[in-house]
Amino acid sequence: MTLTLDTVFDPEAGFGELRSGNLGVRIATRPWEVEAAQRLRYQVFFGEMGASADAETARTGRDADAFDGVADHLLVLDHDKGEGPDSVVGTYRLIRRPAAARLGRFYSDDEYDLAPILAFGGEILELGRSCTHADYRTRGTLQLLWGGIAAYVFKHRIALMFGCASLPGTDLDANAAQLSYLAQHHLAPEALRPRALPERYVGMDRLPAGTYDAKRAMLDLPPLIKGYLRLGGFVGDGAVLDEPFNTTDVCVVVKTDQVTDKYYKHYERKVGPG
Fold first, then answer.
1. Residue 224 contacts by C-beta under 8 Å, 6 or more apart in sequence?
2. Nearest alpha carbon to residue 113 among 189, 201, 51, 178
3. What single-letter DSSP state applies at residue 193?
């Protein structure tokens, strides 16, 4: 997979666009781009995954909330589809501490006590609302998204990333092996361990170690969660059932000093200190 960077960390233009063939990844800069990301999210979350839409969401055909107004929206674009809304085939929502302060909270505050993360001294970044069009769910697209995140992390000197990641459905028995594997093998250190809010807390350690196939459970995790774990990520204490979105959520925490992905090294070499 050949990656090229069209613009290298222009302070006014963000970090430019990272390209791989016809695909590119960059931060949205125009309202229509954010709307296209919201429509893609609606298509995936509500059309495919069975989330329940309220009247306004169903009317607009967009997955939108107040956090969209303060977030940065990472986009994957297929330039073979032109330069309009149809070109947006992947997205990730990025919220830094100053952006969350404008609303007084992060999105994950609705599910987790984030006190250990908020107490962290460096810049923090909440990752969320990740999705790609069904035709683009490939390793290459995921690598491109991670390349964009790595560039963003470097530009904004992010020290810690976190966010809610999802297992499909709300059947705890169906997800028991995956939840148990995460709790037993990837629990965050106490100093960085968010905990599900008491009224929403669901225990993750559901099956005793040795009573299930841990390797199979790891392989069955959604690609996004596996991606976090490959970067040295951890999970918080407790899962949360998100009934409207038909998912079982876990809180993932990743210290960026463990992000050894080749894209991060690429940007560091390109830019140098500064």
1. 130, 165
2. 201
3. -
- Residue 246's domain comprises 4-271
Q: Which residue has the tokens 């200190």?
A: 273
- What are 222's two structure tokens? 């959604």
Q: What is the dihedral of CA 200, 203, 206, 210, to 10 degrees?
A: 150
What is the Cα gyration radius of the chain?
18
Contact indicator for 62, 42 with CB cutoff of 8 Å: yes
Kind plus residue range of the DSSP H or E element containing 183: helix 176-185
Please work out, in degrees rounded to the nearest 5, the angle formed at the alpha carbon of residue 41 by the alpha carbons of 161 and 164: 30
Query: Distance between CA 23 and CA 188 in Å, rounded?
Result: 34
Distance of CA 166 to the CA centre of its chain: 10
Residue 239 has what DSSP assignment?
B
Q: In the numeric block, which tokens belong to residue 70?
A: 């303060």
Residue numbers in the chain where pLDDT is lower than 70: 1-15, 258-274
* b/e burial code for range 174-186 (CB count within 10 A of at least 16 → b): ebbbbbbbbbbeb
The domain tally of the chain equals 1
Asked if 103 and 130 touch (Cβ cutoff 8 Å), the reply is: no
Supply the pTM of this predicted model.
0.88
Q: How many residues are listed for the chain in this entry? A: 274
Q: What integer pLDDT is reported at residue 11 of this predicted model?
A: 34
Q: Is 153 exposed, middle or buried (0-12, 13-18, 19+ CB in 10 A)?
A: buried
Residue 224, Ramachandran bin (φ over 0: left; ψ between -120 and 50: alpha; else beta): alpha
Reduce the DSSP state of residue 271 to 3 states and report it.
Answer: helix
- 109: domain CATH number? 3.40.630.30
